[in-house]
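Q: I'm building a small set of examples for a reading group on sequence design. Run inverse folding on the following structure and report the sequence directly after it, with nothing in between.
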């Protein structure tokens, strides 16, 4: 039987809440969702593959169901198995976390057909923003600035050449259904364009089953700035500021901070309100992130992620707003618990993604954690399902956990991060810990003077010891 959430009951809002939530994910995000559920007084169901039987979220959940063997397609991506787990446990809602089925519109629709709530955006918004071309068109219609480029997929080399002549080189050829840097190639001249088109199409077809590509102006030294939004599907939406995610390797984020060292209050407020207003017009529901490239004082929309982000704790630290809890509330029918005027920013936060990888070659390093000592003290948060004796399986992404620190100023935050990184101990596997220890001592990082290519240039110099 549905009931009133404690937070809403205290506010006199009288909104209903779920009976039981199934967490359709693994690792640190599954544990993060579980914690939000516990604070709402909602029983949880953990699902797991046979490789994750000893995972921390499985140990802490009220119930657990094995949904298949290690390969994700046979477990975490297995919709019939997830439905069966909901049915046998009487779960009336599913939180997908990030990755896996979190941006699968058909999964959300199937759950609805079985009277199970998908804790996330409406299927039509997932589908709309999952198509990069339609997302760009929608952003433009809603007044969000976009990168100059083709209006849609390019059908021929001749069409691509005509567009290139109009907007100039360098150009970025991008897969329409792409992500994670796949199906993305740079053409710096007319001579390079045909090869870039052919290669991007081939990669896109292999990775996504869709070889359509589009063109964008390539920005040489931009920052990657993303705006966190929350909406309740009733025309109410707020932005929670930005995150600077410019430190990337092969388009994969490793280090995120908020606020961005590159933005001032006026720029932050302007782009934030533009995005929030767009979400109000869409009647967007749940958490979402609108991502931009930022160069020479201008923002250019690149995509929207219709899910919770890996780096969401950075925003939580500077706003004191629990994003996962708000996702659950609005999915249950509650209105947003805040207006834009209620959103207050304080201090600075940085997140480092600790991966089970060699810090020089980035070769995956699964295996048993022999020693695990997370740091503590003021302003330090560690989101991880790791523990001493836990075995990192070789079947999934290499994220071991996230170290997030908060300080009153960016300088205090960086000093706190140095201290926390020096306290952190992980033995038995290789990790990216040496990379972060090197980064926080680099003058460019200390000064906040970096861009999306900075980290790869830094790594190419051999600045990190394995």
């Amino acid at each position: 039987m549905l009931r009133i959430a404690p937070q809403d009951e205290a506010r006199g809002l009288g909104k209903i809440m779920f009976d039981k939530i199934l967490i359709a994910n693994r690792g640190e995000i599954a544990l993060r969702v579980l914690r939000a559920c516990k604070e709402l007084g909602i029983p949880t169901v953990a699902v797991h593959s046979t490789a994750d039987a000893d995972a921390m979220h499985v140990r802490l959940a009220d119930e657990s169901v094995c949904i298949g063997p290690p390969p994700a397609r046979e477990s975490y991506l297995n919709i019939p198995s997830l439905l069966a787990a909901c049915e046998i446990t009487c779960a009336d809602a599913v939180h997908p976390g990030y990755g896996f089925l979190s941006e699968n519109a058909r999964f959300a629709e199937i759950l609805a057909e079985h009277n199970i709530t998908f804790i996330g955006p409406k299927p039509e918004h997932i589908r709309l923003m999952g198509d990069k071309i339609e997302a760009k068109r929608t952003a433009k219609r809603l007044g969000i600035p976009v990168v100059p480029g083709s209006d849609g997929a390019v059908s021929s080399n001749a069409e691509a050449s005509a567009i290139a002549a109009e907007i100039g080189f360098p150009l970025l050829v991008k897969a329409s259904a792409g992500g994670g840097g796949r199906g993305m190639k740079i053409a710096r001249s007319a001579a390079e364009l045909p090869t870039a088109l052919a290669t991007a199409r081939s990669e896109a077809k292999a990775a996504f089953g869709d070889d359509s590509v589009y063109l964008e102006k390539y920005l040489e030294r931009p920052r990657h700035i993303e705006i966190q939004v929350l909406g309740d599907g009733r025309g109410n939406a707020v932005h929670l500021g930005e995150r600077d995610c410019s430190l990337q390797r092969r388009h994969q984020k490793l280090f995120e901070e908020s606020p961005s060292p590159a933005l001032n209050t006026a720029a932050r407020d302007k782009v934030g309100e533009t995005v929030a207003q767009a979400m109000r017009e869409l009647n967007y529901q749940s958490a979402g992130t609108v991502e931009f490239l930022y160069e020479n004082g201008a923002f250019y929309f690149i995509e929207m992620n219709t899910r919770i982000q890996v780096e969401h704790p950075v925003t939580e630290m500077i706003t004191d707003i629990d994003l996962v809890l708000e996702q659950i509330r609005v999915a249950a029918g509650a209105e947003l618990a805040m207006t834009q005027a209620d959103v207050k920013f304080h201090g600075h936060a940085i997140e480092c993604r600790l991966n089970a990888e060699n810090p020089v070659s980035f070769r995956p390093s699964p295996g048993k954690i022999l020693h695990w000592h997370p740091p503590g003290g003021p302003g330090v948060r560690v989101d991880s399902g790791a523990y001493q004796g836990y075995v990192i399986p070789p079947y999934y992404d290499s994220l071991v956990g996230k170290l997030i620190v908060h300080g009153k100023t960016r300088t205090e935050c960086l000093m706190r991060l140095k201290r926390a990184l020096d306290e952190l101990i992980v033995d038995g596997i290789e990790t990216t810990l040496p990379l972060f220890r090197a980064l926080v001592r680099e003058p460019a990082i200390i000064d906040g003077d970096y861009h999306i290519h900075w980290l790869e240039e830094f790594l190419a110099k051999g600045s990190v010891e394995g």
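The first strand starts at residue 3 and ends at 4.
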